[in-house]
Amino acid sequence: MIHVTEEEQAYVNAIIAKEMPEIERVSQKIARLLNTLSPQAAVYAHTLLGAELIASVIDDGEMAVGLSKHLQGEIAKALRMNPKYTGKKSVN
Description:
Number of helices: 3
Radius of gyration: 15 Å
Distance between the termini: 20 Å
Shape: globular
Helix content: over 70%
């Protein structure tokens, strides 16, 4: 798990909020590219992309693994909130 101070988290949140339109635009482009693959290949490519990105910005291996685990939890949360799955069986 990554431990950050409230000040560090506020800084990260501010950056994300400021860059959200660009984050969403780039994310949609990447999703369109990945959607040209089979569903299984797209999900696997997403995993490789995430690992490559984390490795490119985090030097500490333990921190990289912790970030990966944190992001897995965030993905699960986002899926549970996705309207596509609302009212259906819980996604585990």
